[in-house]
Amino acid sequence: MPNTRIVHPQLIRILDHYKTIWSLNHFSALGYWDLETYMPQEGIEARSEALAKIASLSQKLFLDKEFMALIKEAIIITNLNDYERAVLRLLLRSLKFYERLPSEFIEALVRTTSEATTVWRKAKQESNFPLFQPYLEKIVSLSRKKADYLGYNDHPYDALLDEYEEGLTTKDVERYFASIKEPLIRLLKRIKSSQHYKEQHELENVEYNKEDMRQFMDKLLLMLHGGFSHLRLDISAHPFSTSLGKGDTRITTRYEGKDFGRSYGSTIHEYGHALYEIQSHEDLHYTPISGGSSLVIHESQSRFWENFVGRSREFLQQMYLELIATNPSLKKYAPEELHRYLNLVKPSLIRTEADEVTYHFHVMIRFEIEKALLEGSLEVAQIPDVWRQKYHDYLGIEPTDDATGVLQDVHWSQGSIGYFPTYSLGTALSAMWKHALERQLGPITALLAQPEGIKQIQAWLKEHIHQFGSTYTFAQLVKKSAGEDFTPVYLLSYLENKYATLYP
């Protein structure tokens, strides 16, 4: 079928050239996915070399004189539509990246992070930060150099934030956290003073058979998505999602052997990412704007499904019979008890398993550490002590080992410094989407009580968010689809109302 969204002859010529770059990205993504899932540990040297060379080759293709000339000729065209302008916008962002970063630097960064990811996995298993420390020191050093190469106005961290969210600055993140910090502290204090507050729920220690839980996750995704023709689920040390291209989106989860909520929440979170990619309009396939490049929008989708669907009483009721069929040890718990367990609020050590209230403190801690690393006021060797102190200050708890502390996230091993703030910003955005959806369709809880409710939610998200891929920036899409500028007001209101009911 002819492309109805990208029709200008100059843009079609550009995309013909881009198809080779897309193909390299496709196999690079496959290499990274395999590195995280099935690759034998001893394969890391060869994989690192291959990924480094692919990155270098992509740079050469981007900087090809004919390709660059086509892009620059298109800049002056005045009758481009939104999709065509977006293609140019993202290609120009990539050109800036490749023009400013030397090829030997790109190869060194890819080679280092590929090796570091495998070392991080081993270090986490052994709870051994010193094993990972020299790799992280090199990654931080390379990240500082990257910021200098890319350029920034106020703070070196700005250059890295911009990689994950176009135009996002350190000051933006500081203002955002300043707006939610005190309200969340007050809310957490009120919850702790409730007679319903618990430091522990017995379901956190209920063990399960990992194969049984794997079968339940398959049934969970069948309920959410209806099939696996373009989606698959695997296991990794840290859950993630990746889209290799049309019809091939992959997510991972992990099975701890107890506390089923960990795997349950991770799987639904990653499904939110996957659905965004899957529902991107077919005319955007093989272009730079297929799927989401804004990490705030992307995380708004994962957190939307994790919190508003996965933690809802109505969805749990739908999954209850499947859950106890594959995990008989949970049979003695009624749906209401499972709901209270999944919405338990308490300070905890692991970000991905944190409740909706304390989650944002986990992100604040990482933001403060990353900012300090980039400006040079914190050295890598100091991170474990600073981590413990910040967890004590923010949440009143401290990790007793590196695995549940500084080594819990995969991001730094991948060089993803600047990513973490998008988790909290995306959560606030998810509350805006919820508000906008409910204005049109009614309460999400009522939708989830119906057999067709999930499809209605998916359809709304596709129409207002997913189909556009990366056509619009975060700010543009919020204005277009929610009808107002980004604000955390809806997040704070949602949390206040929900937990006033659960913790009267």
Q: In a few lines, what is going on in this structure?
A:
With 504 residues, the chain is mainly alpha-helical.
What does this protein look like?
The chain is mainly α. The protein has a single domain (1-504), classed as Neurolysin, domain 3 (Orthogonal Bundle). The chain is 63% helix and 3% strand. The longest helix is centred in the first third of the chain and has 29 residues, at 9-37. The radius of gyration is 22 Å and the shape is globular.
Q: What is the helix content?
A: 55-70%
Using the coordinates shown, work out and report the CATH topology: Neurolysin, domain 3
Describe the largest sheet.
Answer: 3 strands, mixed
Gyration radius from CA atoms, angstroms = 22 Å
Question: Which properties best describe this structure?
Answer:
three-stranded mixed sheet, mainly alpha, Neurolysin, domain 3, globular
Sequence-ordered SSE layout with sheet pairings:
Layout: H1 9-37, H2 44-62, H3 65-75, H4 82-100, H5 103-126, H6 129-150, H7 156-164, H8 170-192, H9 210-225, E1 231-235, E2 241-245, E3 248-253, H10 260-278, H11 295-309, H12 313-326, H13 335-342, H14 359-375, H15 383-395, H16 421-441, H17 444-448, H18 453-464, H19 474-482, H20 489-502
